[in-house]
């Protein structure tokens, strides 16, 4: 099982390898997210300021990594979901992101 961190609620599945995926999504607390990532994770957080905010929230270094990943059965993701839409083309500062309401969501790709 691989644990991924994402700055979006998208669950990336490689449909060249599988035709369907069953996914469970659930809102989790900061402590639950910390417990999930405690043994390691792969960062797919593609926004530098969001990576810094997640680092503060989760108490670990979350690298800024614009990478493509595909989740497989058994993998889990921790997603930060901003509850308000950011205007197109606008890059928010770390301070502005800190004040945005968000959810942490865990995804699990079922076998």
In short:
By secondary structure, this protein is of the alpha/beta class. It has helices at residues 30-37, 48-58, 94-98; strands at residues 3-6, 22-28, 42-44, 76-82, 102-110. It has one domain (3-110): Rossmann fold (3-Layer(aba) Sandwich), CATH 3.40.50.
Folded structure, characterized:
There is one protein chain. The chain is an alpha/beta fold. The protein has a single domain (3-110), classed as Rossmann fold, CATH 3.40.50.11170. Helices cover 22% and strands 27% of the residues. The protein has helices at residues 30-37, 48-58, 94-98; strands at residues 3-6, 22-28, 42-44, 76-82, 102-110. The protein has a five-stranded mixed beta sheet with strand order 2-5-4-1-3, with helices on one face. It is globular, with a radius of gyration of 14 Å.
Fold blueprint:
Elements: E1 3-6, E2 22-28, H1 30-37, E3 42-44, H2 48-58, E4 76-82, H3 94-98, E5 102-110
Parallel strand pairs: 1-3, 1-4
Antiparallel strand pairs: 2-5, 4-5
List its traits.
111 residues, alpha/beta, Rossmann fold, 3 helices, 5 strands, 27% strand, globular
In round numbers, the mean pLDDT is 91
Tally of contiguous helical segments: 3
The neighbouring-strand order within the major sheet is 2-5-4-1-3
Number of strands: 5
